[in-house]
Structure formats: C-alpha cells, structure tokens
Specification:
The protein is mostly beta strands. It is built from 1 helix and 14 strands. The chain folds into 2 domains: 64 residues, SH3 type barrels; 59 residues, SH3 Domains (SH3 type barrels). The strands form 4 sheets. It has a 5-stranded antiparallel sheet, with no helix packed on it. It has a 5-stranded antiparallel sheet with strand order 13-12-11-8-14, with no helix packed on it. Strands 2-3 form a two-stranded antiparallel sheet. The two termini are 32 Å apart.
Length: 145
C-alpha cells in the first residue's frame, strides 16, 4: 500500500476531508458549540454571511474552522451554499479588473465580508460588497476560497 493511500485512509477515518477544501457561509446569526449537540456549551454567535471551512461532517452537525483558525460546531441547517470571503489583510483594494494596474473601485478593511461572485484568473476573486459595488480582489487578501 503506498503512502498516499494510507494517508487518505487515515484522514477518512478521522472524518477529515480528503482532497479539496470546502467552504460555506453562515445563513443567519448562529451559535457555535464546543461539541456536536445543542446541549453542549455554546461558545459564541457567528454573524450571518461569515465564511467557514467545513472540517468534519456528522449528520446534522458540522465542525467548522473560521478565518482565525478556531474550530467549533454548528448545525448544518445554519450553513448556506452561498459563498463569501472575509478580508484578512489590514485593507484590500477591489479593482475594476483582475490586473494590478486596474483602477480601484473601492477599498475594504480587515474583517469585511464580501460575496464571492465567481472564480477569476489565478490569484484573483470577483467579489461584491453589500452596497452593490463589485470588482476583483487578490486572493492573498481574503480567506474563504
């Protein structure tokens, strides 16, 4: 048995994703718990639209990671297919096109959530701000892809 197959089996047994990372956004303000149960200790409320990485799936519960690396549990029903990203840099310029020389459409601060519109050329993401403005941002400035 080769090393890649062994690693895949170990990850599968641990309930971790094998392959692509999967992201979702939170559909409504929701409690995050320290265990997969509504009887577990609630740790905090996560805001609507916040992107999360799906780490472990257990029926109606999902262990998620936030942009800061925190791992907690959320009810699957509180997650949307709709994708968002969050700015992790101190600020990020959203440009008219996917080119460093493109005009700036708007600037966003750290922790601002943007709607992910589509995949763009390598290194870029097309996004929209809640006020309706859209453009391209460097993927190195956001988390949730």
């Amino acid at each position: 048995m080769n090393l890649h197959r062994i690693a895949g089996l170990v990850l599968a047994l641990l309930g971790l994703p094998v392959g692509a990372v999967e992201f979702r956004s939170v559909s409504e303000p929701s409690l995050l718990y320290d265990a997969p149960s509504s009887k577990a200790d609630p740790k905090f409320i996560i805001a609507r639209g916040t992107p999360v990485e799906l780490v472990v799936n257990l029926g109606k519960w999902v262990k998620v990671r936030d942009s800061g690396g925190g791992l907690l549990w959320i009810e699957r029903a509180k997650l949307a297919e709709h994708r968002t990203v969050i700015v992790t840099a101190a600020s990020a310029a959203v440009l008219e096109s996917a080119a460093e020389s493109a005009p700036v459409v708007f600037e966003v601060a750290k922790d601002v959530v943007l709607e992910l519109l589509e995949a763009a050329p390598v290194g870029w993401a097309k996004v929209r701000h809640r006020d309706g403005q859209s453009g391209f941002v460097r993927v190195s400035k956001v988390w949730g892809l």
